[in-house]
Amino acid sequence: MSRFKQLLNSLGKSIFHTQIYGSASTARRNLTASPDLPLLGGASREELFKFVTSICVEDAPADEMFNYASQDFERFLRTVGLLDGLTGKCLELGANPYFTTLLIKEFTNLEPTAANFFNADFAAQGVQKLRFKKMDTGADETIALSFDHFNVEEAHFPYETGSFDVVIFAEIIEHLLTDPCAVLREIKRVLKPNGHMILTTPNVARLENVAKILSGANIYDPYSGYGAYGRHNREYNQHELYELLTHEGFEPEIMYSADVHDNMAGGYWESAELERLLAYRADGLGQYLFTRSKAKLASPTRRPRWLYRSYPEDQLD
Prior knowledge:
Layout: H1 3-9, H2 45-53, E1 56-57, H3 62-71, H4 73-81, E2 87-93, H5 99-107, E3 109-116, E4 125-133, E5 140-149, E6 164-170, H6 180-190, E7 191-202, H7 207-215, H8 238-247, E8 250-258, H9 272-278, E9 288-295
Parallel strand pairs: 2-3, 2-6, 3-5, 6-7
Antiparallel strand pairs: 1-4, 4-5, 7-9, 8-9
Helix pairs in contact: 4-5
């Protein structure tokens, strides 16, 4: 095995929890590298894979659902793994197509509330039917799952202040168009004091992107047939995400990067020089960032200057 591939493999061989070191202006190299894949409830990887890939939203193309579940299976497990030890009421933003929702129902003690946004004309509440195979028996099951419907960037969330112990904000922040701080502040509002936010997002500084840039390839997301929210409008690296969370009054407890599907970096660039340059941040090269943060401090009134431009001076830190 080459040193380059050993570097890739090292992403998954570290402890789960870590202390985050350094001042706000220093690079954080002591964040957790990828832990082992959490096998929820003591189930095997094969059992969990069969369960997740059996989930299908009524009227959704079964092959598309299966392909999505297969490709991002490890991301769903890692997201739900961040809920370990948490209890109470849980708001899952962007719950459709409900892979993590059913894992939450099966393997946690949380009481989930689902929320989605499809289009501006959709009603304020909705119901979708899901088919899946039960974990214990493998028997076919169908349930009706209700959800609230609102655009997190435009709406005042339809919940009272302090309604939830946990908010899941997974694979959404990269799609936002205008003001991520406003969304994080609304999440903070509906969380109870010391409540937890689970945030996951693609890592713009992933090894694949580094290799693409070095080879001259473009890393920007293509335009989407699903409109402006169908593409990634702004991705983050690990340092930026830490800076954003702490600016908004969250205290990161867990933060790591991990690959969740085949890493294609070798198709763009593979060299001893790349290994040498990146070895110092081997814990930040994974495809996705996984975070668990506690709501600790009051939200600020200004936005971080490094993330915004063309705003009045009195609105920026």
